[in-house]
Predict the structure of Leptin receptor gene-related protein.
Amino acid sequence: MAGIKGLVSLAFAGSIGMTFVILACALPQYKLWWPFFVVLFYILCPIPTMIARRHTDGAGGSNSACMETAVFITMGFLVSSFALPIVLARASVIFWGACYLTLAGNVIVYLTILGFFTIFDMDDSDYAMW
């Protein structure tokens, strides 16, 4: 039962993070949807690590070249999602308030993704059957 509470908490945190990103785009003083492109990074971020885990499950440890490359690509996505709103704000494409809301949403969403993979990575959990 405690696992379901954790999953509900993660869903709530993810929705709070996405609310910040949507507010950065949709508030009347901002009215630009450029910050919403960080959602693409949210989708792409875990993919290299998931592929590398699947590939290195049978042979090799967690320090294989495949896993190291996947972590490098994942960090590239993560840094890009923080850099995009800053670059847009410095270029005066978006307002700094929208940048700050997007950065706050980034922190919350990435902590949620980290929590999700921490919960699902445990082998003794009820979620492992999924």
